[in-house]
Amino acid sequence: MNPFLAVRLVSTSIHRWMYGYLTVPDSKTLQPSPDLAESWTTSEDGLTWTFKIRAAKWSDGKPVTADDAAWTFNKMMTDEAAKTANGPAVENFESVTASGQDLTIKLKAPQASMLENPVPIMPKHAWESVTDMANYDAEKYPTVSSGPYIAVEHKKDQYVKLQANPNYWRGKPKIDELQVIFYDNPQAAIAGLKKGDIDLLGRMTPQEFEAIQNDPNIEAWNTQGRRAAYLQVNHGATTTDDKAVGDGHPALKDVKVRQALHYAIDKQKLVDEVQNGLAKPADGSIVPPMYKDFFWEATGDTKVTYDPAKANQILDDAGYKKGADGVRTMPDGDRKLEFRFTIHTETPIEDKLAEYLTAFFKEVGITLTTVKLESSKFTEETGVTGNFDIAISGWSVNPDPEEVMATHLCSRRPAPGGEGGGTESFFCDDTFEKLYQDQLKELDRPKRIDLLKQMQERLYTQAPIIAIYYTNDLEGYRKDKVTSITPIPEDKGLLYGGSGYWPFYTVDVKAAAVAGGSTGGGSNTGLIAGIVGAVVVVGAAAFFLTRRRKSTADERE
Amino acid sequence: MTTPLEAAEPAAVQAAGPGDERPTHRGALRYALSKAGGALFSIAMVLVGTFFVFRLLPGDPVRNLAQGRNMTPTQLDMERRRLGLDKPLLDQFIDFVGDTLRLDLGTSYEYKRPVLDLIGERLGPTLLLAGTGLVIAVSLGIWQGTRAGWRHGSRFDRLSTGASLLLWSVPTFWLGLLLMMVFGVGIGPIPGIFPFRGIESVDAPDGFAYVLDVASHMVLPCLTLVAVVYAQYLLVMRSSLIEEVSQDYVTVARAKGLRDDDVRRRHAVPNALLPTVTLVFMRIGFVVGGAVTVETIYTWPGLGQLFYEAISVPDFTLMQGTFLLITVAVIVMNTLADVVYHLLDPRVRSA
């Protein structure tokens, strides 16, 4: 529960409800809006940012000052351990100083995503005595918080109990108590929802969702999600010094082959039959359509539609001739177009995906064999050593897609010694790099959005990754208990899976009749939210949750 | 009816009694010592094995620790030094053995806490669940096995053996879910009566009510556990009783005109218990490992769940620590089983 260390989705979600940040996504537009910082200004050169911290109070009654924010950032800049969770967020910081309620951040280089700062502001008075940050578990309750809720009790992997923060600057939340209960077993969580042990359950698989769809007491919440699922294609993995690594198939270096693969995939069929219709076929790239501002969709000639004939045509024209067995070979030799498809062990839905892709690629003379790896090995082979041809991948995208774009930068490739990294595709492309640098400097939002869209288009046409679908966000809550809840974004948005505390701040529940004989002291206006453990057990909890561990860093919402 | 377990010990000693040489204390001690020596050797081998096997596993521990976040080479080096991974393998091994002997199992990557603390927290729930499950399964198995074996071929025999074998072959996960649906959620007119998640309610009351709360949380996991494992005790008890029944001494006892009940309880059962007792001891070792599947179905915060988590992360120190604990427990219990068997059964002793 230490926010300087926490990277798991569950803890970071809860921190979103407990602590204030400089800004918070607006509940309607998802654009950064004031949170603890009530206003801000930027210098001409974009290097100095001044935030005015609002006159809020910590839950223990002490005032929130710019000093708290400065302490938080400085701690992260000076203590290696404190960098664990959100280190990259302060990498570009030159200095952070406070004066009264004014927080001044000086940057080394312009950074347009300054308003998407993912760091929770911590109370200096409660935290400055912590010396060994790496081993501090922050299990002191009640916590000193500035968000809508205060954690009052926590049992590791069992539950977290939160209470409304009476000092919250927006006003105390409508419910008094929020219990977040962990389930290791998705079936048990669904059973809990059906029985009424829990009131709300987030992040279901399509199969799990179907189990609650016809229950009269449950509102099945099916909306566009924040996840993009895509294939990662080994188009010639290299390290930061441009040395080739791994054993990717040489044919995949040819952009024609990658495009042919793209034409060979029937995305609608994948949506219908692998995702039970609960997804949207991807005609864009890594930003899902729920982010209306940033979403880019291919149109006209650029658009790749399912067309095996065209795929065959492209491959024929490029000289990949079909052999007697129907399998194509490289133009300059007799190596066949036989690719490996790397998926995770114990994610049945990926097995199904592999079957379909194998059939699609067979149509165009390409053989696909499936390789299953457990998640740490998967991360290593597809993100560091480059020992793969095609791999399943996916990402939960934040309201600002900068970070997910950054995973396709040259600098994110592994260092010569195999260190560092954090690449999503081993992509290294001049056009893409330039666009990225330009958007960093661009403080004009519409112009920046346009640059980010161009980056998506580049990814789409170069196809180091091929987006296949955007999975829906599948949740459910008790109609008989929850009287109102506002999703984020407010127009058909997400509940638990959303970014920010909005749904849990606005949720209101029916006062439950206190059962006779039970202790009277308990809150009768509480919400109990069930969460399937972050450690995915038998039959993965959320579709691509087990993909690379690195996504957990991104999923810090 | 007296529970067979209570009857077991005195009766067994008695059975070993007349006519046989009693073990000299010295002989028993020597046997126990030699067994303990063997166990220590096994534990030493496990230490060596654990160290090297866990280093052969795929994945760089530091990278796992980073969980794929973007870490600078400096940060990675710092972590390596902190974990002692920059030292030569032999030094690391010596450190590892020394630390383990001092009961320092290292710090979990995931939890940032000493592995021993984590194990300590989880040991209680595991012993409670798996221990209770074992006691019930053993009692039920021995009781049913005795009845079935004594009148083998009878309706009771066919029914109970059949039922236990059916449960034994059913996948634990499936059975757990079925019980959860029927007794937890409720089907049709049957209301759900038992909780099916965790060891206690979030708003658990205090005092005796707390005990009841935990007990009600135990019902379904315990039932699942017992249903799946009790067949082995039943079958061993049944077959060894059948074997005893055909022995001359049973015929003699019957010929003496003893009541059928007495023959069974005082003569046949004590002898037939021997293999079961061994089986029970061997199982106690595994109890420590918990029942991974059952703990997972019901989100029971035990060691099995911890071990599973350690593997899924993967959290090497935690994996190593829990693995060591489980293997050592199994070795110790197997040794005890040998010694107890030796004490109970003269035939083994003379061999």
Automatic annotation (TrEMBL), chain A:
Cellular component annotations (GO), alphabetically ordered = ATP-binding cassette (ABC) transporter complex; cell envelope; periplasmic space
Which ranges does the record mark as transmembrane? 527-546
The UniProt entry, under InterPro entries, shows:
Peptide/Ni-bd, SBP_5, SBP_5_dom
Q: Which domain of life is it from?
A: Bacteria
Q: Which GO terms describe its molecular function?
A: peptide transmembrane transporter activity
Keywords tagged on the record: Membrane, Signal, Transmembrane, Transmembrane helix, Transport
Q: Where is the Solute-binding protein family domain?
A: 32-409
Pfam families the UniProt entry points to: SBP_bac_5 (PF00496)
Compartments where located: Cell envelope
Tell me which Gene Ontology terms the entry assigns under biological process.
Answer: peptide transport
* Similarity comment text for this entry: Belongs to the bacterial solute-binding protein 5 family.
Please give the name of this protein. Peptide/nickel transport system substrate-binding protein
UniProt source species: Nonomuraea rubra
From TrEMBL, chain B:
Provenance organism: Nonomuraea rubra
Domain (ABC transmembrane type-1): give its ranges: 123-337
Its keywords, alphabetically, are: Cell membrane, Membrane, Transmembrane, Transmembrane helix, Transport
A GO BP term, please?
transmembrane transport
User: One matching Pfam family, short form?
Assistant: BPD_transp_1
Subcellular localization, as worded in the UniProt entry: Cell membrane
- Tell me where on the tree of life, at the top rank, the source sits: Bacteria
Which Gene3D superfamilies does the UniProt entry name for this protein?
MetI-like
Name it.
Peptide/nickel transport system permease protein
| Any one GO cellular component localisation term in the record | plasma membrane
Q: Which residues cross the membrane?
A: 36-57, 123-143, 164-187, 207-231, 272-298, 318-344
Q: Which portions of the sequence form the region Disordered?
A: 1-24
Question: What is the similarity comment for this entry?
Answer: Belongs to the binding-protein-dependent transport system permease family.
Membrane topology qualifier: Multi-pass membrane protein
Under the heading InterPro entries, the entry gives: BPD_transp_1_N (IPR045621), MetI-like (IPR000515), MetI-like_sf (IPR035906)
Enumerate composition-biased segments (Low complexity).
1-18
